[in-house]
């Protein structure tokens, strides 16, 4: 058994932070800040609950359970465990989060330097994403300590850049925030809560938790209590880093409205704000660090997804899975950032609540003897309610369905599924007692 020093523990936390810190972490807080307007603090607190609090709990849950997501979901049945885990890997992998790393890198790192005529064509994005995911593929095909090494350098550097932007925006502030728009006018907390889903960090936490555990085992840290304590410490380091990033970028977005005008694009907001605050140098520095951050995350996501599907379908080698997902991801990335976000919304709004209930039940498993019926009915009842959120995001809103789900307490806060999930879990527990008898 090996015990890590405080500095080594912090390094593990930075590694986890580097894995989390990708595309969504950069583009959504500035957009929230600008659109929330005078309701910024209500919205950003709600965003921090789902964007920081849930990932923190997710890593802690994996650390305490000592298993993988498939083991947690497999409490219902082995087949469901594989299915649910595959859905999560596809969501944070080739369908949404992975292609988003390429499109955000393009939006922040290349598009601002193109002429308006050139940027209007599809080929610059196509060329960039091919190069970006070829680099990702190269490192995924040759697993190394890249993420660990880059994380040690990149994380402090990125925090330094964002801190410099935030401090400059406070010392020499931009012209200020505008009015609240959209859902932020009447339901700032609920909208901020749902926007936190878009980072996909909670789903990633259910994957990255086991990555940290494996990394610790590689450092000869094998005693369970030490692994759990170190993983939880790393989770808090990563959570503090994420919270600082979100607060800084959110504030920059909030204070930018009167200077750069309204925008529907978080990447454009942070790019223009960096130029206002530091000129061309600010854009160049921000571009370099964010592309590296997205590249680090993309390598981690591609590697994780390929390893999992190779385990499920071993007939296809790990390297072949890497190529399959890399090629597929490149095509998906070329639909564009806004379209990618639009397509991901229904899926995220649907699967996030059942995943949250799964995590909470796993943490409380000793109280109900790990009964599969508690997991089954808890997740089922949650899914019935969260399905409406998914349909609503897809602009499909059956009136009768809305009347049912909107009657549930906490619906306006984006938590209408919570009470049904609890009711389902209690019902499952009662059923388990009868079956035991």
Write a brief caption for the model.
With 437 residues, the protein is an all-alpha fold. It has helices at 6-20, 23-36, 40-65, 69-73, 78-95, 97-109, 116-119, 123-141, 146-171, 188-195, 201-218, 224-255, 257-260, 266-312, 318-333, 337-363, 372-393, 399-405, 418-436.
Summarize this structure as a short list of keywords or feature phrases:
single chain, 437 residues, mainly alpha, globular
SSE inventory with pairings:
Layout: H1 6-20, H2 23-36, H3 40-65, H4 69-73, H5 78-95, H6 97-109, H7 116-119, H8 123-141, H9 146-171, H10 188-195, H11 201-218, H12 224-255, H13 257-260, H14 266-312, H15 318-333, H16 337-363, H17 372-393, H18 399-405, H19 418-436
Helix pairs in contact: 1-9, 1-11, 1-12, 2-3, 2-12, 2-14, 3-10, 3-11, 3-12, 3-16, 5-14, 6-14, 6-15, 8-14, 8-15, 9-12, 9-14, 11-12, 14-15, 16-17, 16-19, 17-19
């Amino acid at each position: 058994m090996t015990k890590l020093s405080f500095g080594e523990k912090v390094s593990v936390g930075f590694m986890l932070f580097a894995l989390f810190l990708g595309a969504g972490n950069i583009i959504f807080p500035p957009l929230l800040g600008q659109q929330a307007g005078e309701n910024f603090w209500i919205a950003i607190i709600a965003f921090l609950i789902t964007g920081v609090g849930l990932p923190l709990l997710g890593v802690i849950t994996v650390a305490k359970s000592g298993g993988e997501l498939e083991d947690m979901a497999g409490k219902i049945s082995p087949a469901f465990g594989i299915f649910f885990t595959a859905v999560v890997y596809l969501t944070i992998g080739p369908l949404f989060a992975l292609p988003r790393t390429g499109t955000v890198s393009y939006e922040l790192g290349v598009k601002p330097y193109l002429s308006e005529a050139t940027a209007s064509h599809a080929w610059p994005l196509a060329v960039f994403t091919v190069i970006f995911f070829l680099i990702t593929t190269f490192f995924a095909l040759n697993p190394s300590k890249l993420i660990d090494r880059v994380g040690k350098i990149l994380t402090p550097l990125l925090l330094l850049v964002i801190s410099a932007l935030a401090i400059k925006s406070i010392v020499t502030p931009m012209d200020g925030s505008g009015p609240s728009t959209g859902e932020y006018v009447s339901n700032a907390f609920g909208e901020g809560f749902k926007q936190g889903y878009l980072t996909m960090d909670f789903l990633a936490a259910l994957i990255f938790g086991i990555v940290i555990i494996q990394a610790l085992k590689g450092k000869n840290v094998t005693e369970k209590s030490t692994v759990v304590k170190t993983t939880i410490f790393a989770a808090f380091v990563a959570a503090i880093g994420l919270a600082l990033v979100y607060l800084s970028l959110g504030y920059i977005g909030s204070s930018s409205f009167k200077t750069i005008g309204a925008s529907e694009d978080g990447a454009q907001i942070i790019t223009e704000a960096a130029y206002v605050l530091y000129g061309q140098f600010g854009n160049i520095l921000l571009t370099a660090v964010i592309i590296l951050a997205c590249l680090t995350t993309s390598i981690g996501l591609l590697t994780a997804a390929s390893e999992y599907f190779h385990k499920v379908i071993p007939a296809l080698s790990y390297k072949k899975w890497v190529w399959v997902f890399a090629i597929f991801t490149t095509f998906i990335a070329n639909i564009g950032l806004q379209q990618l976000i639009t397509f991901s919304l229904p899926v995220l709004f649907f699967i996030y609540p059942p995943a949250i209930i799964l995590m909470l039940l796993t943490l409380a498993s000793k109280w109900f003897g790990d009964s599969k019926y508690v997991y089954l009915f808890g997740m089922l009842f949650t899914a019935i309610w969260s399905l409406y959120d998914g349909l609503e995001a897809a602009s499909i809103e059956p009136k009768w369905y809305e009347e049912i789900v909107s009657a549930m307490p906490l619906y306006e806060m984006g938590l209408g599924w919570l009470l049904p999930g609890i009711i389902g879990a209690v019902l499952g527990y009662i059923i388990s007692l009868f079956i035991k008898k």
